[in-house]
């Protein structure tokens, strides 16, 4: 006789089976790089790929042989709000088009983003942002394949909204207003505003989910989110930001190229102030750090450089959905939408704070 749990779970498992067979994407031509060499794979590489007759290696057996627990669904689906936001920001910034053009089925009928547009990216930055954009499409597909999807929320990616973030971070209205689409450096500064929160969310989600498939999806995306943060905070800031600001992080030392892009403030000043803003809006202490920190907050209390934001044990900070929403709404209150989600984020968890 089937247990009550198994009977209740049957529709859920059927849904997952259907999801496993969906969400495939064939990219439109404008998203395919025509400069990639059209040549066969080297024989040594082809011999290693399953599609070419190579070995098929199975992953180790999971400790808990359940792919997805019912209670895994809502926390992982909540992450789609941020994945939608990152995907639309990178896609529009790199290509001038978004999910509605590259994979409209993924938006699940949600409204298009507000104010997103193609950024004026230099030849070194553009390929990196294209890569981030297309990888975000894969993250959305992987999450939906694992736990099902939620409608894309209304997302405000306008220059005005990013300007509000920076004004709030600095405590006064910047002149000229901050515009993430005007050049590469500003776009990279804007990247610091959104994707870093993704890793906070996944670190907070991982301990409360148990299915091996849901952990796999969260872990893999979390690693990528960390890679985005390290790429930007470390490599990109040092090469694209600090080198343009005479190699120094002090706002008083900002060179002319830096003034053209970020007024009189250097890159480190922006990251420090944005991090401080997120700590205020998150309302749960220090869970965010910019490029410079007091030595006491540096790795092992010994250094003040800060490529990766982390706690006293150099572990990534975790945030709850309520904390993340307070930050993304720019209200400090998970029940008061605004900021990047004028009508609120979607999914059971986000809507529960709104009473809907």
TrEMBL record:
Entry protein name: Desiccation-related protein PCC13-62
Protein keywords: Signal
Pfam families attached to this UniProt entry: Ferritin_2 (PF13668)
Leader sequence residues: 1-26
């Amino acid at each position: 006789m089937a247990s009550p749990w198994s009977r209740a779970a049957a529709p859920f498992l059927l849904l997952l089976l259907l999801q496993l067979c969906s969400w495939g994407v064939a990219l439109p031509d404008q998203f395919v790089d025509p400069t990639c060499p059209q040549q066969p794979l080297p024989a040594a590489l082809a011999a290693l790929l399953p599609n070419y007759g190579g070995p098929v290696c199975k992953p180790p057996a999971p400790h808990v042989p359940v792919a997805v627990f019912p209670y895994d669904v809502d926390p992982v689906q909540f992450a789609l709000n941020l994945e939608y936001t990152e995907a639309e920001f990178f896609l529009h910034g790199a290509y001038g088009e978004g999910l509605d053009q590259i994979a409209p089925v993924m938006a699940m009928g949600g409204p298009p983003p507000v104010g997103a547009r193609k950024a004026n990216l230099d030849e070194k930055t553009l390929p990196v942002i294209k890569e981030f954009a297309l990888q975000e499409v894969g993250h959305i597909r992987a999450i939906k394949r694992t736990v099902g999807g939620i409608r894309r929320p209304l997302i405000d990616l306008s220059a005005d909204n990013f300007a509000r973030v920076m004004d709030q971070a600095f405590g006064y209205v910047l002149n000229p207003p901050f515009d993430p689409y005007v050049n590469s450096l500003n776009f990279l500064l804007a990247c610091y505003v959104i994707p870093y929160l993704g890793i906070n969310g996944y670190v907070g989600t991982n301990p409360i989910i148990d299915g091996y498939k849901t952990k796999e999806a969260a872990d893999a995306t979390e690693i990528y989110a960390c890679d985005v943060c390290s790429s930007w905070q470390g490599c990109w800031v040092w090469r694209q930001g600090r080198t343009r600001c005479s190699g120094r992080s002090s706002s008083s030392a900002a060179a002319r190229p830096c003034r053209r892009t970020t007024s009189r403030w250097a890159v480190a000043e922006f990251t420090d102030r944005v991090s401080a803003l997120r700590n205020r809006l998150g309302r749960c202490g220090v869970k965010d750090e910019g490029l410079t920190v007091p030595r006491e907050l540096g790795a092992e209390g010994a250094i003040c450089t800060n490529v990766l934001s982390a706690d006293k044990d150099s572990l990534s900070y975790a945030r709850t959905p309520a904390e993340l929403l307070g930050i993304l709404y720019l209200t400090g209150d998970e029940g008061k939408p605004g900021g990047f989600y004028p009508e609120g984020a979607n999914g059971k968890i986000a809507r529960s704070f709104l009473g809907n």
